[in-house]
Amino acid sequence: MNLEEYAWNKHEQKMKAEQKEYKYSSPKIKMIDNVELRNEIEVALEKMPQKFLAQWALKVAAANLTHLDSHLRNDPRINLGKETLKKRIDGSISAYELRNVGFVVNELAKESKSDVSKYSARSFAQAIATGHMRGHALVSSDYAIKVQNLITKNSLAASTNERERQLKIIEELMNKHS
The whole model's pTM is what? Predict the structure, then answer.
């Protein structure tokens, strides 16, 4: 895969070109997680073109939209975010246009009353932002884990199930496009 497929962002292309050895990232949030599966996901994501990475992040985050507070579940900003990311994946809009919609979508988290809704909305906003920078994909998936932590009182089994679901989505995407 060439650098333009790997990342649409010049900074991320440069970082990849200069990368000597791979290092796992640390989560940006506190959560109960299956670290081995998170690492496996991170390695798999590193091998995906940004186009597939964005599709993956959207599928991961979309599953948690049912956890938004009731006043946000049918909010038009959800479809706006999905449609905008799809346009970015197709190459019909710029990163600038996507980022502007990302700021609008991020308001869902600010308008959330419950923590579960807030983290579901953050997962979704980070998924949309994956159309700008690759790094948002793993953050989006970490927020999906935080949602599981909140709805299951920090069950490691629930986190593991969610990570397994995320891995299955990677497998499905890669099989579909191989």
Answer: 0.96
